[in-house]
Design goal:
The structure holds 2 protein chains of 2 kinds. Chain A has 13 helices and no strands. Chain A is an all-alpha fold. Chain A has one domain: ABC transporter involved in vitamin B12 uptake, BtuC (Orthogonal Bundle), CATH 1.10.3470.10. Chain A is globular and about 60 Å long. Chain B has a domain of 172 residues: P-loop containing nucleotide triphosphate hydrolases (Rossmann fold). Helices cover 35% and strands 24% of the residues of chain B. Chain B has a 6-stranded mixed beta sheet, with helices on both faces. Classes of the chains: A mainly alpha, B alpha/beta.
Chain lengths: 270, 250
């Protein structure tokens, strides 16, 4: 089958469009998460997403509509735990993460198991994305990216040095709240591309790949986005032609890009 | 009559069950150049963080530009250089220009966009500090002294009226240290910028500052460097030969 024929399939077009937007979204947010040493929040919120998906399936509602608000609440919960209960970030993530998994397992048990539906959310099903889900993914991705663009300099300043950012009058509490809410939306949207088990890879890999080779913050953002787009497109193409799980293929290509950037940095730059 | 830039009355702060600062009262007028000194653990950085609103005092009153610190919002009037070691990740993927431009955000309203003319201001301050040729270099590739100059540039780029610098000459070589103090002296004398500098460099404090603020969990001394040199506190805290070494009196 030729590439042009492959691109005529509706499900491939939907997968590529949604994947591109979500890939750029994850990579953009991922740069800030990695530099703030908050990468594990992706994993934590992914586990919270597991609980919310189980709830949605039990209530026979769309997991996207149930998960987005619930995971946003969980993200604010992580922030409040670090501020009020004075937990370290990783402990706060662990609390919410384990709660999400426990709730998911409990609900799954009550429902007598969810079999295929839950499996597709655990490992991604971008090739099965519906038109409605594509539209939601595009709209929310544009919304999140727009917010990041508007708050870009505040986010950069806080990521670099939060105390100095506060002294310059930036409302760091407000920006941090916005940031975790955007992360929550991103994690839920990414569920469709790589699945709950691999969401953190889509957040972390493009960022760490870009950090090896880019020489300015703007260059890191652009390189991370290119890396994410490349991995999503190649992941969809290879998974289709080689009959492989798409989510895992996307992540493995991300890993290969990361190794390539390390090699470039080690041997060619020097 | 110079106005009070900073007025602190009976400041008290504790961390867990430990008193960190108590009975701190002093005021700083516009155009003052204050050297803040004290032994390690004396509360200097804590005092700075309280002045800047980063920590909330347990007691006392703080007025910044005659406004209570809790409602103060004119942060564009203040420049701040934190202690370098605590300040940032040295491998952060930003160029010198990108870092210094962050110092301009206090003057901006939403959305905080850095314009082309802002980058001219960045270039000017980099030129003053002798690192304009490094403006597109990632900060992680700089020496310790160049990184410190980048952070100093970030504190000054906004032309603040009041600058607080926490150990700014750390990692600077002697030539750069003198150049730094010359720059601060010019800002203070010619532009009437008020300066608080936390430093262990007693030699340069004597040359440049108008007043010395010595704390060790409490206010020990606040006055001119000359008065400090004649005081009993200098021998008590710096030892028998302090006058010879610090005040150059033989």
């Amino acid at each position: 089958m030729e590439l042009t024929e492959f691109l005529r399939y509706g499900f491939i077009q939907r997968a590529l469009i949604a994947g591109l937007f979500i890939g750029i979204l994850c990579s953009t947010l991922g740069v800030f998460l990695v530099l703030r040493r908050f990468s594990l929040i992706g994993d934590g919120l992914a586990h919270a997403t597991f609980g919310s998906v189980a709830l949605a399936l039990l209530l026979k509602m769309s997991p996207l509509y149930v998960s987005i608000p619930l995971v946003m609440v969980c993200s604010l919960g992580i922030l409040k735990l670090t501020e009020r209960a004075r937990l370290y970030g990783d402990a706060a993530i662990g609390v919410v993460s384990s709660l999400g998994v426990a709730v998911g397992v409990m609900l799954s048990s009550i429902a007598g198991g969810f079999n295929v539906d839950l499996f597709s959310y655990l490992f991604g099903s971008i090739l099965a994305i519906s038109n409605a889900e594509v539209v939601i993914s595009i709209v929310l991705s544009i919304l999140v990216i727009t917010v990041i663009i508007f708050y870009y300099n505040e986010l950069l300043s806080i990521t670099f040095d939060e105390d100095s950012a506060k002294v310059s009058g930036i409302n760091t509490k407000f920006i941090n709240s916005i940031f975790v809410l955007l992360t929550a939306v991103t994690v839920v949207l990414s569920m469709k591309v790589v699945g709950i088990m691999l969401i953190s890879a889509l957040l972390i890999f493009p960022a760490v790949t870009a950090l090896q080779i880019a020489r300015s913050f703007k260059a890191v953002m652009v390189t991370a986005s290119l890396s994410a787009v490349t991995s999503v497109v190649l992941g969809i193409v290879f998974s289709f032609f080689l009959d492989l799980p798409t989510g895992a293929t996307v992540v493995l290509i991300n890993f290969m890009l990361f190794i390539s950037s390390l090699t470039y940095k080690r041997f060619i730059k020097k | 009559m110079p106005i009070d830039i900073l007025s602190i009355d009976n400041l008290y702060f504790r961390y867990n069950s430990l008193d960190v600062l108590s009975d701190i009262s002093f005021s700083i007028k516009a155009g003052d150049y204050i050297g803040l000194v004290g032994p390690n653990g004396s509360g200097k950085t804590t005092l700075i963080k309280i002045i800047l609103g980063l920590l909330k005092p347990y007691g006392g009153k703080i007025l910044l530009f005659d406004k209570d610190i809790s409602t103060f919002s004119e942060w564009d009037r203040i420049g701040y250089l934190p202690q370098k070691m605590a300040a940032f990740n040295p491998r952060f993927p930003a160029t010198v220009s990108e870092v210094v431009a962050m110092g301009l955000l206090s003057k901006k309203s939403f959305p905080k966009h850095i314009s082309r003319s802002d980058y001219t201001a960045v270039d000017n301050i980099l030129e003053l500090l002798g690192i304009k040729n490094l403006k597109n270099t990632p900060i992680g590739e700089l020496s310790g002294g160049q990184q410190q100059r980048t952070l100093v540039a970030r504190a000054l780029v906004n032309n603040p009226e009041f600058i607080i610098l926490d150990e700014p000459t750390d990692a600077l070589d002697p030539e750069m240290r003198d150049r730094f103090f010359d720059i601060m002296n010019n800002l203070n004398k010619k532009k009437q910028v008020t300066v608080i500098i936390v430093t262990h460099d007693m030699g340069n404090i004597g040359r440049y500052t108008s007043k010395l603020l010595y704390i060790d969990k409490k206010l020990i001394f606040y006055g001119s460097f000359d008065d400090f040199c004649k005081s009993s506190e200098i021998t008590q805290f710096f030892g028998e030969y302090a006058q010879h070494v610090i005040c150059h009196r033989h």
